[in-house]
Design brief:
There is one protein chain. The chain is mainly α and 259 residues long. The protein folds into 2 domains: 4-128; 141-258, no CATH class. It is built from 9 helices and no strands. It has helices at 27-37, 44-62, 73-81, 87-103, 116-140, 143-161, 165-169, 195-207, 230-258. The longest helix is centred in the last third of the chain and has 29 residues, at 230-258. The chain is elongated and about 90 Å long.
């Protein structure tokens, strides 16, 4: 049974059924709860309390909690935040869990169920943290090398495959089936591009592309994260085209002079 099924579960009618759905790290916590309820008559209310405890423990596990006594305010916010859109459904189980383990002396008495406003502030802090981490990753790259590798890959793509600027800007890293990592060796799955184009792309991903979670393949080198501009790609393609024409003209001239 998945986590969302626990929100309004009606399939499990036995108290012991819920034991099978408790995360291994938190089985001891659930067993303590079950032991305290052992002498209670089996009613729908008791079964519901076990469902709620199972739901709350699973949400804590997804928030990275492995020990009840080490739960923090952020852990509670994270656990509730994971059920975004289902605050009412998760609020009661989490309140009951907090009350139970406080009564057992296993949780800090200052902890309480996060309010919707607490969750809003928590999400805001997460966004700030993500932005700070993303900016740091941009600061860490060698911008000159990144641009050099990116522009080389783009130029080869355009000249060897005929890809347009619009197509290149819209290329997605997942669609490319890339598996390149920042390491001394570049491992990847086979692509449909010519070998020199393929190698240029993987070299850019491994050693030039900012290591961030963005679907677009070719990125600007400055924060914030965004795909390379179409105008810049068009300029690169135009420059490469002019260069190719000059080389072709020079080659013809050499042949003429040779005759």
């Amino acid at each position: 049974m998945d986590d969302m099924s626990f929100l309004n579960c009606t399939d499990l009618n036995e108290v012991n059924d819920y034991r099978n759905y408790i995360p291994k790290e938190l089985e001891e916590a659930y067993d303590l709860f079950a032991m305290r309820q052992a002498n209670e008559p089996i009613t729908q209310e008791l079964i519901e309390s076990h469902r709620q405890m199972a739901l709350a423990l699973r949400s804590l596990k997804h928030a990275g909690v492995s020990k009840i006594s080490e739960i923090t305010e952020n852990d509670l916010c994270n656990a509730v935040h994971l059920y975004e859109g289902y605050y009412k459904e998760i609020a009661k189980p989490m309140k009951n869990l907090i009350a139970f383990f406080k009564s057992e002396g296993l949780m800090d008495n200052d902890l309480c169920m996060p309010t919707p406003n607490d969750i809003k502030l928590y999400k805001r802090s997460l966004r700030k943290q993500d932005k700070a981490e993303e900016k740091l990753k941009f600061d860490e790259i060698d911008k000159f090398k990144s641009e050099e590798l990116r522009d080389r890959a783009i130029t080869l793509l355009a000249t060897k495959t005929g890809a347009s600027a619009e197509c290149i800007c819209g290329m997605e890293i997942v669609a490319m089936d890339l598996n390149a990592k920042r390491s001394s060796t570049v491992e990847h799955k086979k692509s449909d591009f010519p070998p020199d184009v393929e190698n240029a792309i993987f070299e850019y991903v491994a050693y030039g592309r900012p290591d961030i979670d963005c679907k677009y393949l070719f990125m600007m080198t400055n924060y914030p994260a965004r795909p390379v501009r179409q105008a810049a790609v068009e300029a690169l393609i135009e420059h490469a085209s002019k260069k190719a024409k000059i080389k072709k003209a020079e080659s013809k001239a050499r042949k003429r002079d040779a005759v």
